[in-house]
Amino acid sequence: MNLSSGHMGIRFVLAVALIAGTALYVRGRGHDDPAPPHQDVTSFPRDLGSWQGGPDIPFSADTLEVLGPGDFLERDYAASGEREHVDLYLAYFPSQRSGDTIHSPRHCLPGAGWQFAQSAELQLKSLSGQPITVNYYVIAKGNDRQAVLYWYQAHGRVVANEYWAKFYQMWDAMRLNRTDGSLVRVITSVAPGESLDSARDRAVGFAEQLLPLLGSYIPG
Questions:
Q1: Taking a C-beta distance cutoff of 8 angstroms, is the pair 132, 187 a contact?
Q2: Host domain of residue 82
Q3: What is the pLDDT of residues 74-99, one digit of tens each?
């Protein structure tokens, strides 16, 4: 086994132990999750700068059963001069103690037939001036490609890595007796003849307009 494989194996073991410990801990702490008051994600603004939101995309009964208890929104946004729409998905889980955990797009998107073509982390600008690190993926299905941004957000904290999100979930369960959390995902298609950089910049520009508003819907 080479050195990089050894490091990957250690990270995998640590991640498994972390997730198992998180699950045992939060289930053993009882069922009180005193999340502060917040607005339902379905009331998220339809007007975001030059972007205009369309009707909410309904979730099937099967999808809602898989997601479990929570608040969920999926909506397309369009802007004059932009070649493609942007799809926004917000999921807020008031509690993750009983198996109702956030489903990572890394697992859900391949199940829908999409394959990951590129992956990286990139930084978004925030009002505070501190850069926020999020996940960036390019997914492909046949000749279609899409640029995807997503991150985990809870208690005023934005995290890209799902294992760190699990760690902070355990940490906040101990400190705050809270396991609520959210997933924010932005997807835009790559138009025919469009560069990946152009599609990425569209997703980034849209996501940076979301950031100042999310605190009203994802309690800190």
A1: no
A2: 3-216
A3: 999 999 989 899 999 999 987 666 65
